[in-house]
Amino acid sequence: MKRPRLVPNAGKVLRRSWTSHILVVGGLLTAGEAVLPYLSGSELIPPSVFPFVAFAVVFAAFAARFVLQETLHDADD
Hints:
Helices cover 52% and strands 0% of the residues. By secondary structure, it is mainly alpha-helical. The protein has a domain at 47-77. It is elongated, with a radius of gyration of 17 Å.
């Protein structure tokens, strides 16, 4: 079995890919979902809707993975 390796332009991918940006937002939403019960009275997003918002963001990251991101394929950094 081969060992996993990073893509040659990993730094550029992290900075410019939609997928990584959307996944960061998804991670923040997941963290927010864990913290929300402790912040009584601050309902920016109603608790019954919050899981659906988090799901939508993660699904958007999944879909973005299949969109050609030409800024990642430029010859220059």
